[in-house]
């Protein structure tokens, strides 16, 4: 059984999701500003429940996943970040087999450097445990704040791909060799 870590930074606590987070988690994924460049559609309570269960399942089966982002000072849930392997049906490239990096923060938590702070800690954690696994992310070309965060973290554009519309596929080399492959 995989132990889901808690990672602390100067201002943040990255921790496993828990059932007490559910109402705040519903509010996060129902927020139009949060989902604008991710799914485009606010999630229902039922869809958010499935997302929360997926977070736990990813840790169980893959040994990595998403963590809730808690602001230390206030103790409030402000978002989530982590890694996925979603077996996405993307063309012509894929993120399958990589640590697909993602993040989402409440609008009130954006523009404070929280995403960069959280992801630096998560990337350091992942590089220790999965040193040979490439890191990728997919970002809507109109999402310039997330593109700036990705650039700060060393992600670079590899391709433009179709995944429910055009997205930019980025990869991060760092200590890892990037080897993306085309979908079958």
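Q: What amino acid sequence fits the structure above?
A:
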């Amino acid at each position: 059984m995989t132990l889901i870590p808690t990672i602390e930074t100067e201002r943040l606590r990255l921790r496993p999701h828990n059932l007490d987070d559910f109402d705040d988690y519903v509010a996060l994924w129902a927020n139009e500003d949060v989902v604008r460049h991710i799914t485009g559609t606010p999630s229902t309570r039922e869809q958010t429940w499935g997302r929360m269960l997926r977070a736990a399942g990813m840790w169980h089966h893959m040994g990595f996943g998403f963590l809730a982002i808690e602001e230390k000072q206030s103790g409030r849930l402000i978002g989530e970040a982590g890694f996925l392997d979603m077996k996405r049906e993307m063309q012509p490239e894929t993120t399958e087999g990589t640590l697909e990096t993602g993040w989402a923060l409440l609008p009130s938590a954006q523009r404070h450097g929280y995403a960069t702070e959280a992801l630096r800690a998560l990337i350091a954690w992942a590089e220790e445990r999965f040193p040979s696994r490439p890191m990728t992310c997919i970002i809507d070309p109109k999402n310039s704040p997330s593109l700036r965060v990705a650039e700060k973290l060393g992600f670079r554009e590899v391709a433009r791909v179709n995944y429910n519309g055009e997205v930019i596929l980025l990869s991060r080399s760092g200590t890892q060799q990037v080897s993306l492959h085309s979908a079958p």
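Q: And what stands out in the fold?
A: Residues 45-62 form the longest helix (18 residues).
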